[in-house]
Amino acid sequence: MIGIGIGPGFGGSLPFSPRNISGLALWLRADKGVTIATGVSSWADQSGNGNTATQATGSAQPTRNASDASYNNQATLSFASAASQFLATGATPSLSQPFSIVVVGNDSGAAAIQALADDKAATLYFANNGSGHYYLSGGLNVTTNAAASNTPKVLIATINGASTTIRLSAATPDVTGNIGAATLTGVSIGCIGNGVSGFLNGKIAEVAVYSKALSVAEVAAINNYANKRYGISIGA
Question: What is the CATH number of the domain that holds 140?
């Protein structure tokens, strides 16, 4: 059996991937499963659940960067807010609480709301509020983490009622609060809703969704993975 571990090889086991953690409902990585038309028309789910994200409109398709120097020369997708670029899955994954969302990416730092991921219903968006504070719709707002919004980071949200947490390139929660009874019925990437507003002007390297609350050890494994793969510094 392959353990989670937090080192690059985990004591002789295979290198970590998000699949090492149980409950993986969606996994998108920019070097895997990308179909190019005008831009990225399809981003295939690597979790095995078939939750592929697509975009049929050519002008709304993000651009793939095969080697991004800002992300340790790993692949990323670039989203342009002026062109309303985004990708979205169908109605799945469909999850009730608790569940967790992981995004490796950044926005431009501009004074406008920029969403990295949402539930397609404009009710659970994970975004920068235009003043450098990352938040979940429903009022959970990170105000204490000084990480610049236009630099690569790993954002981890566990949605679990009054125990909902957000971590911003950090081992411990930056904020804990009550997000209410939000559910997940599909995922949009780079906007609020299914292309409604809050378009991202930035990059995304990975998106993962888990059908559970992540443990401290699992968060540490994901953070270590982001540090090793993308060169993202992780705080306490």
Answer: 2.60.120.200
